[in-house]
């Protein structure tokens, strides 16, 4: 059974006061400031997880409808979950999370630059 998160609470990671309105849905499942969550569900909305540790935002993915979702990993047990972004999420934190792989050495920057130039020349950048 899904339970709407309507009570205000403080983020366990950054201390931000989190209120339910502004999220764009009835389910507040992460902090709009730092994007961290708390491990409370085994399945979305069931509140059956006994862990209760912080869920760290580790990535972003785009669903088939184009909507973004945050990938969280539990800092205690390693469980992973995906949560829709909320209307009031910090856009700079979302972008930083989405671009995080590009700041690491996973990608050859010269090759990326060349690919972007080719895409731009072909009109396929956006």
UniProtKB/TrEMBL annotation:
Residues 7-95 form the RNHCP domain. Pfam families: RNHCP (PF12647). It comes from the Bacteria. This is RNHCP domain-containing protein. It comes from Shuttleworthella satelles DSM 14600.
């Amino acid at each position: 059974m899904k339970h709407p998160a309507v009570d205000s609470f403080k983020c366990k990671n950054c201390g931000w006061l989190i209120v339910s309105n502004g999220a764009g849905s009835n389910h507040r499942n992460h902090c709009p400031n730092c994007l961290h969550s708390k491990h409370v569900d085994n399945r979305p909305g069931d509140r059956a997880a006994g862990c209760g540790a912080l869920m760290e935002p580790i990535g972003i993915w785009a669903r088939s409808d184009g909507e973004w979702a945050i990938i969280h990993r539990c800092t205690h047990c390693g469980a992973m979950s995906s949560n829709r972004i909320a209307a009031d999420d910090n856009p700079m934190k979302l972008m930083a999370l989405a671009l995080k792989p590009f700041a690491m050495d996973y990608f050859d920057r010269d090759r990326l630059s060349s690919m972007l130039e080719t895409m731009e020349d072909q009109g396929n950048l956006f």
